[in-house]
Design a protein that fits this description.
165 residues; five-stranded mixed beta sheet; disordered C terminus
Length: 165
């Protein structure tokens, strides 16, 4: 179902010039080992923080590697940054009891936005969001990062080495 919605929203945004944003959310590393019960509690808390921060027309989808992809139709870059920061702050205020230890989970978020009037694909947006998430985690986590399309393309390595001039 999500793939169908995604296809329609990307196509609609490009055709009619609507803004479209994605965010890729990932947990920052936690100290110690995470058992299944704790993992379930972490993901449940993240789901609640996300649901309380999104509109009914936005789509959160859990991805492999304990990441969550947020599709936000009719949302520009500024709006997506506000939503991502709101989710990050909600998670940072939460605590989780794990045996005798109290955990303070944090998340990092990479944001991407399709600019009206510019050609882009879902793959472009995912690459930008993933680069933003990597940058946020590399900077210490508990933050939101945006990597522009130009920076994201420039950071790619060519599949084949280019010949020397």
């Amino acid at each position: 179902h999500f793939k169908e919605v995604l296809f329609i929203e990307v196509k609609r945004a490009r055709r009619y010039g609507f803004p479209l944003a994605l965010a890729l959310v990932g947990f920052d590393p936690l100290p110690g080992k995470i058992d299944n019960e704790l993992h379930t509690q972490l993901m449940g808390g993240l789901a609640l923080a996300i649901r309380r921060s999104l509109r009914d027309t936005d789509y959160p989808v859990q991805q492999p590697g304990d990441r969550v992809l947020l599709l936000m139709p009719h949302t520009d870059l500024a709006g997506s940054l506000i939503v991502a920061r709101r989710i990050t702050e909600r998670v940072a205020r939460a605590t989780l009891q794990a045996g005798d230890t109290v955990l303070h989970p944090t998340i990092s978020v990479g944001v991407a936005a399709g600019e009206p009037g510019r050609e882009y694909s879902f793959a472009d947006l995912i690459r930008q969001a993933n680069d933003g998430l990597s940058a946020a985690q590399a900077a210490g986590g508990n933050r939101v990062e945006f990597v522009s399309a130009a920076e994201s393309v420039a950071s790619e390595k060519p599949e084949f080495p280019l010949p020397a001039p």
